């Protein structure tokens, strides 16, 4: 697991991270959200041993890493997908990392397959699109089959298919029991990907919560259409949502889009559509990070 306790990181006069505390548990995807310069990358870099804490702790599986001594069987990370030697072929790039960590080439083929790059394994990375580089970076993170994974802005620059692919991969990695921390600017993306949300601004914790809790506190409801509105209403009410009905259209508060989809699917109730709640959560996020809203940390 990942534990950040009262972490502060200063660069000269700049306080990049300011007394930050949060935890990421195994089997969950935690979305790490905050505007540019909020301190997300710095926090990950300290967790990975690439920068030293000024004070406080940033622990992975209870330990601290020294620079370049991070065991890739324990923790994998994608920090800067662009920073790959363009002259190398994808297979050789990963093969080199694998060899220096005593990992066989069979695993290289496996991770290339998992990220959908098996077909271009022998192509030079220099010709890869940003999306392909993100996939390659993720493959490198997965090489050691680690239990803890950190991805810094993995959806940056990806098209909708790429974004969907990342979302499914993150969910699958958490379902395998891994601890996943993923940073993003986009609440709309995290809403569908993350179980928990850690929102920071100016290096400080703003909210440590769930998508559901945030939707319940700030959401203006999700408009849902279904051929079986009465059944759906029963299911969503039992799940803790508040449902209002008007002319066969339900407005649900207290549950996020992903929750509603899951509950409907579990009961075999078809949905015609959900008006994306993302806009209202995005607004909530903007309010939060603008410092104009208060949000207490939610007990686990
Ligand atoms: N190596 C460094 N030297 C000096 N200042 C730094 C360094 N790294 C980060 N900072 C500063 O620390 C603050 C936090 O930056 P950080 O990159 O961690 O934020 P971020 O949330 O990851 O932002 P972004 O979304 O833009 O990547 C910023 O003010 C940044 O300028």
TrEMBL record:
Residues 26-204 form the AAA+ ATPase domain. One of its GO terms (molecular function) is ATP binding. InterPro entries: AAA+_ATPase, ABC_transporter-like_ATP-bd, ABC_transporter-like_CS, P-loop_NTPase. Keywords: ATP-binding, Nucleotide-binding, Transport. Pfam families: ABC_tran. The keyword Nucleotide-binding applies. PANTHER family: ABC TRANSPORTER, ATP-BINDING PROTEIN. Belongs to the ABC transporter superfamily. This is ATP-binding cassette domain-containing protein. It comes from Actinomadura graeca.
């Amino acid at each position: 697991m990942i534990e950040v306790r009262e972490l502060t990181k200063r660069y000269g006069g700049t306080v990049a991270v300011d007394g930050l505390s949060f935890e990421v548990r195994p089997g969950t995807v935690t979305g790490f959200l905050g505007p540019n310069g909020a301190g997300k990358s710095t926090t990950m870099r300290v967790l990975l041993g690439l920068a030293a804490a000024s004070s406080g702790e940033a622990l992975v599986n209870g330990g601290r890493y020294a620079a370049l001594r991070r065991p890739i069987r324990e923790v994998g990370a994608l920090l800067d997908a662009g920073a790959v030697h363009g002259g190398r072929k994808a297979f050789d790039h990963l093969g080199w990392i694998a060899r220096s960590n005593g990992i066989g080439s069979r695993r290289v083929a496996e991770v290339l397959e998992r990220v959908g790059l098996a077909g271009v394994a022998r192509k030079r990375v220099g010709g890869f699109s940003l999306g392909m580089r993100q996939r390659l970076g993720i493959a490198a993170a997965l090489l050691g089959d680690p239990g803890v994974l950190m991805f810094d802005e993995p959806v940056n620059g990806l098209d909708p298919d790429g974004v969907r692919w990342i979302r499914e991969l993150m969910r699958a990695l958490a379902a395998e029991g891994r601890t996943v921390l993923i940073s993003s600017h986009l609440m709309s993306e995290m809403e569908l990907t993350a179980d928990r949300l850690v929102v920071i601004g100016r290096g400080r914790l703003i909210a440590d919560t769930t998508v559901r809790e945030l939707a319940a506190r700030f959401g203006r409801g999700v408009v849902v259409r279904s051929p079986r509105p009465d059944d759906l209403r029963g299911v969503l009410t039992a799940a803790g949502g508040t449902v209002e009905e008007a002319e066969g259209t339900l407005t649900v508060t207290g549950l996020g889009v992903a929750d509603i989809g899951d509950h409907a699917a579990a009961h075999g109730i078809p949905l015609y559509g959900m008006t994306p709640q993302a806009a209202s959560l995005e607004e909530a996020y903007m309010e939060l990070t603008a410092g104009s809203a208060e949000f207490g940390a939610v007990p686990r």
